[in-house]
Amino acid sequence: MASKCHVCGKLTRQPIQVPVCGDPGTKIPVCSKRCRDEYLAGYVETHKGKSLRMLQRPHGPGVVLAILWAGYALVHLVGPVLVRAVPVPLLPARMGPEFYTGGIAALIVAFAVLREAKQARLFSTGLAAVGILFAVLSYAKTRHPSYVLEAATVFPAALLLAVGEPGPKRALGALGLFALYPVALVVTTATGMFTTSRAVEQVAAESYDGPVRVDPRAGLRLSVPDGWYILREESTLLPHDGALFRALRPEGRLSVHVYDRPDCRPADPERMVRVLDAFTAAGARPELDEGLAMLPVSSPLGEGRSFFVRMDEPRPQLWYVVFLPWTQGRCLELRCGGAAGEEPAIRRDCIPLGARALAPAAPGP
């Protein structure tokens, strides 16, 4: 004859008999070892003759889930203040509003779990899923290891506790997985690992605030994505060479220069041939598209032309060069690249920059 599990309510024909606390002579049926462990661990209580699972109560998996999100919130809300005094390599180089928003959301979920709010675990699941998606997209954009750390520790641990009916073993596993998050932050900070953070600190000190810079004299605006820094006029991190703008990405040591070039029209094939001849005379090897034609580039300044240039001296380098229309008889040259060994990053980052980075300082009427 089937018996009803005291913990989960399922019918079972081979129940496990568990002694009731305080009354060894009385036993209750459970359907599995997992339900038995949960009952013995105190994750189940009886109220008005019905058994209630205590997974949202502030103990057991519930308190582990609250600790997890509270720890994550602490890093996201205190971290931006901490990095001003101590370099923390495993925090993003630039912390935008979304970084603080994630911390606030995690704090709200932690509070909801402790207050036994309805659907608290559902909110936790949603926050973890959104966090994984955001981490993947952010890493693809910036290649910063902080997003890998969160995607591999915090969010999977939250899912372990929020999806299904976690038992003691799963709670312990989630806590161990999450513990890697603060440990990695502390260890890398104390040992100076991921030394790119020091380069980021130096670059940030010689850069303008924000990813956008306007040159009112030229009437131009330069916009760079996360991970890039627009250098100040007095910065010595990159050669100046009369550039209108200079930008640097510490990871991969990629750089951007923008020049105002006279006697240049991107739409004029003859003038573009002169440009190529000048690169060749300087020892560079331009790489053109099929048929020795430059690739067209559509930008806010109009249609331009682009190609890759390889240089062997003083060291192997690869540059993505874009010529965009400017004033009459002049054009803008955007040169983005770095060491030839960074070719995948150069192709991934520089091509979008060539099409989107430069725009008029103010929209037209």
Can you give a write-up of this model?
With 365 residues, this protein is of the alpha+beta class. 41% of the residues lie in helices and 24% in strands. The protein contains ten helices and 17 strands. Helix 2 runs parallel beside helix 7 and helix 6 runs antiparallel to helix 7 (168-191). The chain is elongated and about 100 Å long. Mean pLDDT is 81; it is low at 54-58.
Give a quick precis of the structure.
With 365 residues, this protein is an alpha+beta fold. The protein is built from 10 helices and 17 strands.
SSE arrangement:
Layout: E1 3-4, E2 11-12, E3 16-20, E4 23-30, H1 33-41, E5 44-47, E6 50-53, H2 61-82, H3 97-114, H4 120-142, H5 145-152, H6 154-162, H7 168-191, H8 196-205, E7 212-215, E8 220-223, E9 229-230, E10 245-249, E11 254-262, H9 269-281, E12 285-287, E13 295-299, E14 302-311, E15 317-325, E16 330-339, H10 343-356, E17 358-360
Antiparallel strand pairs: 1-2, 3-4, 5-6, 7-8, 8-17, 9-10, 10-11, 11-16, 12-14, 13-14, 14-15, 15-16
